[in-house]
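quick q for whoever's on today - can somebody do inverse folding on this one?? i tried earlier but teh output was garbage lol. tokens:
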């Protein structure tokens, strides 16, 4: 009988997902990669034909240790951890898990936007710390969201789901900046395409939802934060490296912008002594955009399907070109 291709699953997935892969592959699984598991991971990598997981930097150095690799299946929509040019040069397929997470991530981003606008974590702590002595005065007021201008940088699947929430749920006029026009967002949600500069100048909320690419690295720096309204709020649900964090800290401290809601950071987990964490006008989340059971299960199953179909010689549903 034909030998089953060996694959490494390097992120915790449900047994049902492993069982599905095991129907056609020999599976070596790691719940996480760290100093304890890396030695065995690189040992197994020598004759592995498939990889499934998220966040592992897959570049020339790693690929030189994986001579039989045929496909890398990312358990994420973002694939900045993959050196696509190197994978392509070696004829190795790469796939990701778009679409299934759009609504979940858009919910998270809108929750983060509302929490930041109305200072909810700060108010929650005030109650829990027994500081609620009188009815809240204007020094603790937040800002309105409904009818305010939302600027979306990156009108992809998640950006569109955010626009839907803003338009139908909060009567927000929407501006967007993107590599290309998005007629659907314009027709369905009244989104208006504009330059990054105009978006930054006119938006009350700026939501950064682009992939991390050489074009978007440090997209938001001092110049960009200075262009924003002093009453504006910045939300980042993309990747940490799309933002110059020093410039963001400066903008928040000097009042160039009002506040920020962040689900992603340059270094993750973010270190406890990071300057951002000392600011009252910053709301932070530990990269939980898609972190609900049903959605992560859909992502895992999609990553598994991409892996299995690729190894069976078919074109995977989500092949990254
Ligand atoms: C994942 C993400 O949580 O999909 C992405 O790009 O950032 C998140 O949905 C993360 O990559 C781990 O799977």
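ok took a stab at it. sequence:
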């Amino acid at each position: 009988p034909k030998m089953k291709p060996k694959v490494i699953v390097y992120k915790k997935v449900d047994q049902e997902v492993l069982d599905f892969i095991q129907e056609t592959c020999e599976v070596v699984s790691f719940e996480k990669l760290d100093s304890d598991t890396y030695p065995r991971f690189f040992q197994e990598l020598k004759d592995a034909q498939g990889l499934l997981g998220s966040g592992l930097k897959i570049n020339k150095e790693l690929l030189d240790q994986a001579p039989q690799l045929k496909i890398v299946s990312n358990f994420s929509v973002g694939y900045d951890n993959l050196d696509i040019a190197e994978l392509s040069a070696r004829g190795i397929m790469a796939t990701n898990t778009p679409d299934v997470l759009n609504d979940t991530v858009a919910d998270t981003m809108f929750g983060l936007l509302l929490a930041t606008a109305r200072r909810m974590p700060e108010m929650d702590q005030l109650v829990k710390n027994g500081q609620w002595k009188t009815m809240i005065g204007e020094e603790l007021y937040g800002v309105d969201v409904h009818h305010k201008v939302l600027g979306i940088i990156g009108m992809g699947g998640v950006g569109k789901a955010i626009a839907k929430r803003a338009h139908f749920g909060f009567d927000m006029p929407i501006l967007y900046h993107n590599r290309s026009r998005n007629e659907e967002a314009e027709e369905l949600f009244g989104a208006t395409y504009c330059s990054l500069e105009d978006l930054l100048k006119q938006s009350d909320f700026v939501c950064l939802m682009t992939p991390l690419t050489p074009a978007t690295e440090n997209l938001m720096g001092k110049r960009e934060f200075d262009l924003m309204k002093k009453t504006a709020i910045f939300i980042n649900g993309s990747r940490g490296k799309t933002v110059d964090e020093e410039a963001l800290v400066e903008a928040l401290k000097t009042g160039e912008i009002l506040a920020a809601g962040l689900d992603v950071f340059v270094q993750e987990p973010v270190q406890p002594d990071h300057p951002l964490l000392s600011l009252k006008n910053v709301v932070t989340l530990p990269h939980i955009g898609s972190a609900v059971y049903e959605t992560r299960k859909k992502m895992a199953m999609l990553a598994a399907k991409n892996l299995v179909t690729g190894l069976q010689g078919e074109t995977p549903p989500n092949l990254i070109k």
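fwiw The pocket of 2-keto-D-gluconic acid is lined by residues 54, 75-78, 101, 289-290 (CB under 6 Å). also The chain has a mean pLDDT of 98. so keep that in mind when u check it
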